[in-house]
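Hi U.,

Before I forget, here's the chain from the pilot set. I'm dumping it here mostly so it's searchable later in email.
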Amino acid sequence: MFGYVAASVDELTEEQKQRWGSVYCGICAALGKQSGFVSRVVLRYDCAFLALLLMSLYEPPEALTPGRCIAHPLSQKPRISCQAVDYAAAMNLALGYYKALDDSADEGKLSAKALCKALEKPLAGVESAYGRQCAAIKSVLAELSRLEKEDCADADACAACFGRLLGEVFVWKQDRWADTLYRLGFSLGRFIYLADCHCDLERDRKSGAFNPYLRQSFSPTQRKSHLVMAMAAAMGAYEQLPLVRDKEILDNIIYSGVWLRIREENHA
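Structure:
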């Protein structure tokens, strides 16, 4: 379901590409420290956006260090470490674990069961530190599973469900920015869910997989209007945040990058 919130890299300067890449590599390194190599299977660019957003808003101290990894064994890649990166990595781990747990329960996937087993121990630490967020992820995925089993035809209800999950994840601290971050996460979560339904519609039609759009007579234009309205709400919350550093990269993601997969699907 994730994979929509990434940068439109061709529109970034070389310096911005390096900055964006160093945040992503920082999350990868943080995941490795938290739970070993296996956790990097669940690594997503969406959480790099979350890290960069929180770094811009809260401006925590950062450290930039070179490092090698299995993906780039012959060259050193700069990676950023800071509290916001560690938080995004923790959320990435929790999302990956609970998604795998959901897949294991619903579909009996052996790979999902193995991933859950490997992430159980590090997840305990994440749950201890971020109980509110983990409880929300677990609760929402259970609710989504129930809606799928009921063959829910209300795409808005399903999308709002996922919006609540991402809203809680975006709230790092209970402070003056919590409400705005929740609204941004909620609207972005709705967009991600609806975008996934839109892009997977024909594949789900052929496979018989659950997709609320299959139960609604929405035209492609109506589905795209759904997406535009969801992103408009996300943009409204986003613009209320006092972001300065990395604002151009964040703008690139919010105003352009989120549409990349949708444009690719339209031209497939």
